[in-house]
Amino acid sequence: MKNLLLLCFVVLSITAVKAQRIQVELLGGISNYQGDLLPIVFTFRQAQPAFNANVKYQLSNHFYVRGGIAAGAIRADDKKSSRDDLKVRNLNFQSHISEINAGLEYDLISLENFPVTPYFFTGIGLFHFNPYTFDQSGQKIYLQPLSTEGQGLPEYPDRKPYFLTQVCWPLAGGIKYEPCINLQISCEFGFRKLFTDYLDDVSDTYADEAVLLAERGAKSVELSYRGDELPGGNPNYPKGMVRGNKNEMDWYYFTGLKLTFRLGNGGICNIGRGSSKNKLGCPKAW
C-alpha cells in the first residue's frame, strides 16, 4: 500500500510539473492581406476581425513548442484603392481564412529575470481560402471555378488551377508582458508567407473573353473584368493586358492582443507560493 501511495504521489507530482509548462493562448484582433488588390505591406484599410487560439509547451526559459488554429477574413475592393489604375479595373473579392500551424517560439529575454520580452515565432502552417465576389444582381459567386484568367484551360497550359488548401510559412513576433507566472499579455503581429498569387483570384494577364465564354460561361467574362460596370467605364474587354503581378506572391497577416494562461498553478495570479519569486513578487515558473 505504501509503495502504491508513493507511486501515485510521484505520478501526480510529475503531472503537476508538466502542467506548469503548458500554456493556453487566445488572441483577438484583425486580419488583412497584401496582394494585387491591396498592394500595401501593412494597412488597417479594409481589415476584418480575426481570432487565434494556441497551446504551448515550455521547453526552457526561452523556447516553446507552439501549435494553434486561426480564423479570419480578408477583402479588398478596387473602388477603395488610392491608385487610379486599380480603380478603373473595378475588381473586388472576399475570402474566409482558416489555418492550423505549429512551430517554435523564442523569448529574447527570459521572463525569469524580467517581466517584458520581445518574442518571435516561426513554423509551418496549412490554410484554406475560397475567394468570392458579388455580381451586379447581388448574387454571391465563388471565383476559383470560373478560371477568370484561364487557369486550367487548354488555351493556357502554363496557368494551372490553384488549390484552395495550401501550405503557408508563419512568421510572427511581438512583445509579451508577464504580470505573474500564470498570466501573460502580448501584442502580436504575424505574417504568413504564401506560395500562391491567387489568394485574391488575380495574378496574370486578362484571358481571351471568347475562350472564357466558351469554356466557363458568361459569368466568368463578367467577373474577370468589371471596369464596364463603372459610370463612364471602359466597355472594351482588355484582352492580354496586365491584370495582376504574377512575380509577387500574396500574403495575409493577423494582428491583435493575446492573453496567455499557464495551467497547473492554482489560479490566474498565484503569488503566495513560497519564496521563489520574480522581480514583480510573483512566483517563478521553476
Give the class from helix and strand content and strand pairing: mainly beta
Please, how many helices? Answer: 4
**Anisotropy-based shape:** elongated
Radius of gyration: 25 Å
Text of the CATH class of the domain at 2-129 and 164-205 and 248-262: Mainly Beta
Which strand order does the major sheet show? 1-2-3-4-5-8-9-10
Distance between the termini: 31 Å
Percent strand equals 35-45%
**CATH architecture descriptor text of the domain at 2-129 and 164-205 and 248-262:** Beta Barrel
CATH topology of the domain at 2-129 and 164-205 and 248-262: Porin
How many strand segments? Answer: 10
Q: What profile does the largest beta sheet have? A: 8 strands, antiparallel, barrel
Low-confidence stretches: 1-18, 270-286
Oligomerization state: single chain
* Strand and helix order: HEEEHEEEEEEHHE
- Helix fraction, binned, reads 10-25%
Mean pLDDT: 87
Q: How would you describe this protein?
A:
This protein is mainly β. The protein has a domain at 2-129 and 164-205 and 248-262: Porin. 13% of the residues lie in helices and 40% in strands. It is built from four helices and ten strands, in the order H-E-E-E-H-E-E-E-E-E-E-H-H-E. The chain has helices at 2-20, 84-87, 209-216, 218-224, and strands at 22-34, 48-58, 63-77, 92-107, 116-128, 132-134, 140-142, 165-180, 183-194, 251-262. Helix 3 (209-216) packs across helix 4.
